[in-house]
Specification:
The protein has 394 residues and is mostly helical. The protein is built from 16 helices and 4 strands.
């Protein structure tokens, strides 16, 4: 049994599977007699903040720290290092953010409150999307995995910018001043080639608290800390950035993201009507994820290649690009996160229908994306010697 558990957590798809399980448990509990206990737990106050607040503003800052580390590594030595390799996923990501937002705006134009959720379908759940792709194992070309990872990372970076610009509350200048001072301190540590992680964590904790009190969303502190961690260690030392990334990954994939899903996917269907479910808000989100995402990513990718601005990565064709673009319609945790910023404290009913739209769109995108990849990728066959080979026939 221990070996089975160990093997499960080694699977690339394990994080995505846990997300689904956590969300399913939350949805089930929220629609039973246990809902009062569930809501009571989430609204229990610990050190001045509710458990829900700690998860969304505290633990998710660690997730955004990991995003910051991943983006920095990819920019310095990964898929985004050179213009040639970065331009294709970057253009695709821009299309993948613009088109879903436009679809949502088309459905909700004229509703001053609903329009605040325009960024909800612009997000991609990187853990979920990679988890679904990992279910196909070695059939997936490395270049296609890199494309999805780079696309999702740029998408996440775009979401960070959107949160900073459009989902920031009333600002506290004194808290912002402390935040800027701590940001400067982090990059001074980097410039002085400090490779021990403890000073970064101490300054980072103060930065997080300052940002929390400033009116800017506290998770953005995580991205700043991630960018400040040095990639290169001193002679004979491991990379501080890679060390931290490696250390954080299992906690984020198997702890923080499933906990976030559990805390935010528990939607009570009591009082939910079919009219509400088919209203412009949830439809705009679901169709933004299902139609806007693939339309934006695929069309921008196609135009980039046909215009000569970028070229298709080796081993990938446009059928693969379309399948991945559908998979990117899994907004899930990131979309729920933006929904909580747009509607969470303003309109609970809007937030409920938004989350239902996210679940409808994300679930359908996951199933369709998997199916399209399954039929478009090379099939495994067994050779005469009994060894597995890949047949390039589609």
């Amino acid at each position: 049994m221990n070996d089975m558990i160990r093997d499960f957590f080694k699977m690339e798809s394990a994080g995505g599977i846990l997300l689904v399980i956590a969300a399913a448990i939350a949805m089930t509990i929220a629609n039973t007699s246990l809902n009062d206990a569930y809501q009571g737990f989430l609204h229990t106050y610990v050190f001045g903040m509710s458990v829900s607040h700690w998860i969304n503003d505290g633990l998710m800052a660690v997730f955004f720290l990991l995003i910051g580390l991943e983006v920095k590594r990819e920019l310095l030595e990964g898929a985004l290092k050179s213009k040639e390799t970065a331009i294709f996923p970057a253009i695709a990501a821009v299309g993948g953010m613009l088109a879903p937002a436009l679809v949502y705006i088309m459905f909700n134009y004229g509703d001053a409150q609903a329009i605040q959720g325009w960024a909800i379908p612009a997000a991609t759940d990187i853990a979920f999307a990679l988890g679904i792709m990992a279910l196909l194992g070695k059939r997936v070309p490395v270049s296609l995995k890199v494309f999805l990872l780079a696309l999702a990372i740029i998408d996440d970076l775009g979401v960070v910018v959107i949160i900073a610009l459009f989902y920031t509350g009333d600002l506290s200048t004194s808290a912002l001043a402390v935040g800027f001072a701590m940001t400067a301190a982090l990059f001074i540590l980097n410039a002085k080639k400090v490779t021990k992680l403890t000073p970064y964590m101490i300054v980072g904790a103060i930065l997080w608290f300052a940002v929390l009190k400033s009116g800017v969303h506290a998770t953005l502190a995580g991205v700043v800390i991630g960018f400040a961690i040095p990639l290169q260690g001193k002679k004979g030392e491991h990379s501080p950035l890679k060390h931290m990334e490696h250390a954080l990954h299992p906690y984020v994939a198997f702890g923080i993201l499933p906990l976030f899903a559990f805390a935010n996917a528990g939607i009570s269907l009591e009082g939910v009507s079919m009219d509400g479910l088919t209203s412009m808000l949830p439809l705009g989100i679901a169709l933004g994820l299902l139609i806007g995402k693939p339309l934006g990513i695929f069309s921008f990718s196609w135009l980039a290649v046909k215009s000569g601005v970028a070229k298709l990565p080796e081993g990938i064709n446009f059928v693969h690009i379309f399948a991945v673009s559908v998979l990117c319609g899994i907004g899930f945790t990131m979309s729920i996160f933006i929904s909580s910023l747009a509607f969470g404290t303003v309109n609970v009913e809007f937030d409920t229908y938004a989350r239902l739209g996210i679940l409808m769109g994300s679930t359908t995108a996951a199933v369709l994306g998997y199916f399209l990849l399954h039929i478009s990728l090379p099939k495994k066959v067994v050779s005469v010697e009994g060894n597995e080979q890949v047949n390039s026939q589609h």
